[in-house]
Fold this sequence. Notes:
- The structure holds two protein chains of two kinds.
- By secondary structure, chain A is of the alpha/beta class.
- Chain A is 27% helix and 26% strand.
- The longest helix of chain A is centred in the C-terminal third of the chain and has 13 residues, at 98-110.
- Chain B has helices at residues 17-23, 29-44, 70-81, 105-115, 119-129, 161-169, 182-189, 219-230, 241-244, 250-266, 279-284, 300-308, 333-350, 365-372, 375-382, 392-396, 411-416, 424-431; strands spanning 50-52, 58-60, 90-92, 191-193, 205-211, 235-238, 273-274, 289-298, 323-331, 359-363, 386-388, 406-408, 420-421.
- Chain B is globular.
- The chains are: A alpha/beta, B alpha/beta.
- The interface between A and B is large, with 39 and 41 residues.
Amino acid sequence: MKTFQGRVISPGTLQAKALVSKQGLNTLASFQKALQFGDKEATCGDQNNPDLYGKKMKGKALCLPQTIGSTTGGLVLYCACAMGRQPACLLFSEPIDSLAAAGSILADVWLDNVSMPVIDSLGDDFLNYVKDDMDIEIQDKGTVVVK
Amino acid sequence: MKGSCCEDIGEIMILTKEQEAVLKGQEGEVKAKVMETVIRYGEIFGADSLVEITSDQHHFVTSFGLKALTPIYELFDTLIEAGAVPDKKFTADPRPLDDAVPSSFLQDFVFKKFMYSKQEEYEAQLKKLGLLNEDAFTCTCYMDEVGNIPKEGDILSWSESSAVVYANSVLGARCNRNSGVMDLMGAIVGYVPNFGLLTDEGRKASWEIQVKTSKKPEAQLLGSAIGMKVMEDVPYITGLDAWLGNELNDDVKAYLKDFGAATASNGAVGLFHVENLTPEAKRLGRYLLRDEVKTYVIDDAELERVYRNYPVVWKNKEATPKLCFIGCPHLSLAQLKDWSRKVDERLKAKGKKKLVIPTVFTAAPQVAKAFRQSPEAKMLEERGGIVSSICPLMYMNNPLCGKVPVITPSNKLRTYTTARYDTDELILEQITGGKI
């Protein structure tokens, strides 16, 4: 078990299983198929991401460095939240990028009854330590416990 | 459970009385939420204040009625119903559909009935939000023919990455690389958070790029090499003025448009400086370099290495190209005319009458209109070229296009789709029937 400290972007506490991407998450490429064709489990459709391709993202503690790709990324993330196909939380090892920040803030401000806690700046050690299916617990004030 | 960290919204940032009043709901609950969105977004990046948007018009990236984005259109309905709309008109990115562009029956069916089934509805929303006019759909709103051209020092709320990097670098305006919808949120309140590329410090370069090629480098290849190296950092480029000169004429601006789009899509560059050429580099020179800079030397061998390393993601790598897109970002009028003359001359030289690969040349509606008045338009039409104002990226952004071998001289289109990149010369050779 290891504890990491990050910064709260969108608040909330929860427990979930980890899903890890060592490379940047291309939000549009990852979520488009799920949003377009009614895949409620949000199976990752990005063929360029071997860590996530074909895996179900909904309800997982998505651990990643940053998001990348088209500037539609923020609104795609917002839509995933609005349609209930979002990860349980987003845990960034690096400072959050502008696309993910926009999506996270839009979801937190504009969607009622949707929760997707977002923590950033957890550090390289976090991403090196965490593996798929490990237990993640988000506590108050940006504390993340990995078991 | 959803917690609350946000009672202190606006406490990190210094707000004016007017901004605070909007945040507290003086102009309605919806506008208060828009202000909250803009402030929280800025606070993440350490913004100390909100600064007024000074451009005459806005430009938004979201131009497509993609069914997958239905919740966004619902959000826009909320804004429109509450009267929370920008007080200035805007242009938007290109449309995703155009009947002039070749497509199969299946593609047409999927595009119109599934993917972009919200297009009409969304364009009606854009009109209510303040769309400039029916022709306001292009990624190159800064072309003279379109006229959405920010002045040096203007503060913008844009998010189309190729337009942001052009506005910052070539026009000397100030804009961060925002996400779609955040551009609209800023435009509604009239302010953007003061951080990053809006600040003098954020506009300083942490990379010195030394161009040492034996000929003028291909814009889209050079931009790609630099983008992949520096990612989101600001590069200061030396040696390129030897090839481009010291004046921002139409040819140079078109070069920097394509170059910038490649830096922004192959990396995440929002601003570059070209020594002795771009406005801030001319004014401030090497003062724009940070105390500690990394160096990247680009010579012929480095460009060749970058070019050879692009993956070709076609299922059959040897397939004959079925379609070619030229103009991502949209072409300038001079570029359209130049391509037309080159196509004509090359076909004449080969003793051929028509292009052998269906080729779509894309430009802003106003640029295409001006082009159609020129002798080159007839020349291109007779050779079988198609002029359109479609967004090639949105056209290709679907699984059906993954099966079609498309070629392009756009490094942006290569990055986001299955299109194969080739240099301008190799593209010209292929579409006129040559083998490479």
